[in-house]
Design brief:
Chain lengths: 295, 114
Amino acid sequence: MKKNMIIAFGLSVLLISGCATQSIQQGKDLSTSGIAYTEAVGKLLDVTTDRVIDFDTEELKKTRRGSDLRGMITNKNVAVADVLTEIGKFRAQTKLLKSYFLNLQALADSQVKDDAGGAVKSLSDSISKLNKALGGKDGKENLTEDQKAQIGALGGLVANTIHAAKIKRALTRDAEIIGAYLALQENQLGNITGILRDRFLAENDLFLNEKVIAPYVDKNQTLGTEWANNRKQWFKTQFVSQQLDTAKEAAKQLRGVWADILQGKTDINSLSVLISDVNEFVTTVQALEAAGETK
Amino acid sequence: METIDANSNQATLDSLRIVRRRLYSIPESELSSMDLEDQVKYGDSLHQNALAILKLEAAKLKGVNDAFKEKEQELKTAAAGLEEDAAALIDAVKVIRVVSDGLNLVTNIVKLLG
């Protein structure tokens, strides 16, 4: 009798702990950083698109001294549109990544027994094709040696970790695919923030030359409140572009978050500070634009 | 399709962006007082330089063709030379003339991007 009671107690403990493990797996956060990152990048792309267009419009005014104005504006329209098309493609790719994380989370939360995770697999296939298009030969040609080595190690991270079977299948299949894509995304984001930084610096130089230095050296001009405000604005805005580094850093750290997820750790939203910096940058830029429009 | 050398392309972009900022540093008031011919050169040079920057930026975000790939190093050298020449000059008119002459090679290679 006593033996039967011990066995029954043991089985109960096993049952309770089994339920608890399943609950932890289902409640595991696999997507917070990925989603927050893709949303911040989306806002950054909005700002970049506006900047590229506005800057080019101002530049067209400066080049209006040239010899073939019709040809110039036609060529510029095509060239700007080409850059915007590439930014648009990057935006679509970022949305694909967001969908992947959303569906991975949905798979983790799914109550359906033996959920095959068809949506996650389909997104993984699309991202794999994207890697081949962006990454050159073998999808990794455009990556650095460090990036290649880190991606190569990702596959092994899943093997000995505790995941629900359906999640383990998906993560084993996608470890390198998503890892490679995150590295390519990081490189592309570097290119895009490079464009944004350049426009910022050039605009800032122009502002300094035309609104601060030129009136100052012209002794016939009276220096009023507007000049003083312009000088203050130049001081304040010249450091804004430094915040752009956080965007690329966030992209890099997202690869670390992916490695954590593969190892069975919960996404604790470790990117929140970096992402909040990116969002702050976007807000600052929008405020500056609004201030410029009211001048 | 060949992909571009990211470092080489970045160096070219950096040089052309510096040249643009050099052209931007010439005040409007000084430009207006120049000969008409130099003003036209300024407009054309700023335009060609900006166009080259936009095309290289687009190329960085996507693959580029093989013909461009062959000329990539030549472009990098030409852009670096342009940057150096423009930086060495103080007189605005001389800067405009040097940039105007030096941009020909750059724009001819960038045209390969389509």
